[in-house]
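Board notes (copied after class):
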Amino acid sequence: GVDFGLLAPNGEILGNPYMYRGTFTQGVMERTFKRVSRERIFNVTGLQLMEINTIFQLIALREMKSPMLDVAESLLFVPDLFNYLFTGVKANEFSIASTSQLYDPTRKAWATDLMGELDIPAKLFQKIVPSGTVLGNLTDAVAAECGAGPIPLIAPACHDTGSAVAAVPASVSGAEKPDWCYISSGTWSLMGVELNRPVINEKSLKYNYTNEGGVGGSIRFLKNIVGMLLVQECRKQWASEGYEHGYGELASMAEAATPFLAQIDPNHLPFLAPGNMPAKIEAFCKKTGQKEPHSRAEFVRTCLESLALAYRRTIEGFEDILGQRINVIHIVGGGCQNTLLNQMTADACGRTVIAGPVEATAAGNILTQAIATGDVKDLGALRTIVRNSFDVKHFEPRNSGAWEAAYARFQGVVGA
């Protein structure tokens, strides 16, 4: 999500797309709020305010005095860019467009007035097409190079979380107040509920929740939480120091470590960027007056426990906004293989956790394409296929007293 390429009038890509984990947007969000208020931006777009969003990347280009915005004829988000290279068709797919903070989910159109206020050229943006649109056939050149015929290209939910949520093995929500939520667990943890219309109000701004698009025109009302990147970056640092560990080994080490040594806020801004995560965790613990982890097992356990506690905080926000208790948490994606985190999530949140499928993004992608071809009827039928095709694991809450005490401390740390 959020990253893009700019194209010249002749179709040439103008430079390499930026990577949102870079540093070029640092500080731009607060500078932008001096021109247009955070309330104004949120009320139009309904999107979680994060400096990585497309809106702030484009403003950063303006601040850098980049000529590309004036030279470019069109903007394509990274999945759209690949679709264009295969087909020659320029279009912005709904789910990926909705991550930009330049889309108005209430009007179901580009937020052109907001673009004008921020000196972002509205001419760059393409027609928005629904998830599951047949864009066109491979170009003759691509087909010839592949030895293929006129194969049609279908845009699924091009944002990976959009495809992953489509493959959550639950019922189609369609309700104003669903009783289940999902976590798409990978380097990010995307935790949310599926709704049929956006929620843009004072509470959703207060919690900094987001309204993104999904299959069938649904709204993924969610929170972006830095996820397994915490452990991934710790592992990377330790490997550079000569300590190689697989993820399964790290989970086993963490399971045997002292519980509730410290809590961190997964969305603490320095955690977003790569580089020496253990040192960043130590710095956070010092800043918040906590005992610092020392062993690798303690670092990993701190990361996993903090994620589970962040999920608890997030689910309580959903319940406050929707006025509905959420009874079941579906965890999909690569992170659902971490059985320790799954159990911690059940314990911390006091809810049943259903983990799987691991390859939800791929399943949701291909089955959304099958809807486009008429081989699958709709999202409900898609989820029936998923439920009948993949094994899932159930985790029930336990040890609630210890987690309640830890959550009370976590609330203080996050607010620190």
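Comment from the instructor: Residues 296-322 form the longest helix (27 residues). The chain has a mean pLDDT of 96.
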